[in-house]
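Figure 3 (text version): structure tokens given as input.
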């Protein structure tokens, strides 16, 4: 049984900025599961940019799913059409292996917001299906739940790239920090690095003082 999901995300950046940042989505702190990214085809036809990329992503599965699939990574094909005249960017993504176990097809349309100039709307649709006899419903439900969780990571990761590429946009730095709060581990590392730098500076000062006196 095919599971269908759709959502809409608003990015506080112009369509031109979103279209530019799309090709630089990886790496980012929210997409550590993306291992590789390769452009395998790109051409301009009728004023539109057609691209095809091959992505490799980690694909951890729960214990019960290892009986069907236990590969460490999965290959994803991403095809896109960028139309600068109509200001639309349409992407199609699908996995190319183990499709009988679970296939995930995603379509995203990026367009300028009609209600709020300077913002971009991403209309996302996804179809999740499984052909494993007796388990298709459970596998599709699992795939749908994981896809929903990944959508949040994808949006956060793309926002991180946008804020990084366009720091002078009409977006407050406060919003950026709310999107990307420092984790406890990061704070500890930063504190340790600061302390280490302080100790090094003191040691250098003592060394120079001792050298002058002797």
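Below: residues designed for each position.
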């Amino acid at each position: 049984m095919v599971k269908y999901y759709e959502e809409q995300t608003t990015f506080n950046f112009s369509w031109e900025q979103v279209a530019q940042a799309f090709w630089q989505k990886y790496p980012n702190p929210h997409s550590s599961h993306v291992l590789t990214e390769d452009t395998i085809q790109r051409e301009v036809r009728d004023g539109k940019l057609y691209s095809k990329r091959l992505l490799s992503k980690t694909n951890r599965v729960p214990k019960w799913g290892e009986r069907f699939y236990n590969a460490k990574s999965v290959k994803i094909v991403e095809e896109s059409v960028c139309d600068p005249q109509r200001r639309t960017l349409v992407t199609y993504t699908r996995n190319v292996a183990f499709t009988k176990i679970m296939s995930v097809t995603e379509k995203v349309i990026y367009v300028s917001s009609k209600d709020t100039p300077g913002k971009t709307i991403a209309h996302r649709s996804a179809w999740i299906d499984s052909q494993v006899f007796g388990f298709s419903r459970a596998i599709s439900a699992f795939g749908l739940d994981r896809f929903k969780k990944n959508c949040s990571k994808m949006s956060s990761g793309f926002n991180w790239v946008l804020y990084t590429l366009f720091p002078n946009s009409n977006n407050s730095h406060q919003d950026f920090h709310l999107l990307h709060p420092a984790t406890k581990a990061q704070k500890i590392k930063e504190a340790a690095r600061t302390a280490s730098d302080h100790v090094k500076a003191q040691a250098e000062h003592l060394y120079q003082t001792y050298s002058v006196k002797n």
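The first strand starts at residue 3 and ends at 11.
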